[in-house]
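Notes, Module 5: Reading structure tokens.

Key idea: the token line is not a picture. It is a compressed description, and you learn to read it the same way you learned to read a sequence, by spotting repeated patterns. We will look at two proteins. The first is printed below with its tokens.
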Amino acid sequence: DITKIHMQLAVESNTVIAYVDGSYDHSLKRYSFGCVIITPEEDIICESGSNDDPLAAENRNVAGELLGVMFVIKWAYGKGFDKIIIRHDYEGIAKWFTGQWKAKSYCAIKYIEFMNKYRNVMDISFEKVVAHSGDKYNEMADDLAKKAIH
């Protein structure tokens, strides 16, 4: 069972595992995120949110994805966790953080500015997952993002 596997990893490594996904609604010019957070205490927390910053909205669902990562980093740090694995389906989330991609867009620049505050106080790692491949928690994050947009 996938839940038991995730729980075991979170508990044994004292690491938060967070799935994040983003969405965008062109008619509303809004972007959103959904996230599923698995804690070492074996809690599963679902969160979501949305925004309509016009500069960020130019990046459509990517703005939501980045908002989701920033949310879970701030959440985990605020709860006293110092290790987090971000599971995501958009490769820029990790590549901007690691410097493989240069942050050029408004969204990416704001993301890197935020992440740099946590880079040296948390162990942040990334794992890419395949979108819409049946991964239970990635599908939940996607669903939460879609519902949060309205």
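Here is the second protein, with the sequence above and the tokens below, as before.
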Amino acid sequence: MVVRGEDALDTTAPRLAGTGTASDPFVVASLPFAAHGDTRTMGEARVDRWDGCSTANESGRELRFRFHLDAPARITAAVSSGAGADLDVHLVPAGSMGAACVARDNRQVDVDL
């Protein structure tokens, strides 16, 4: 954020670790969590179909996030986009490099883990 005539608000903001790919997912340090990404320029196009959740063509770039739970928890993962974009949420097992899928939705997944 920039405000004319003011010092930068957060010059040393922490950066999200990772690149959002299957081999180097963004690392979620704690929950709750929010991030902004752009699948036009970030992530990688690796999976066209997420077996176990849908037979739909899901080709295009994916942004992957990794998180760890120390205890059972209800997780809500949601995505929003501008007009014309077709983004979906897929929950996949840890370490999954392929198309394995636990849950998916066009906008939001709620699941007990």
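Summary for the second protein:
- The mean pLDDT is 86.
- The CA atoms of residues 1 and 13 lie 12 Å apart.
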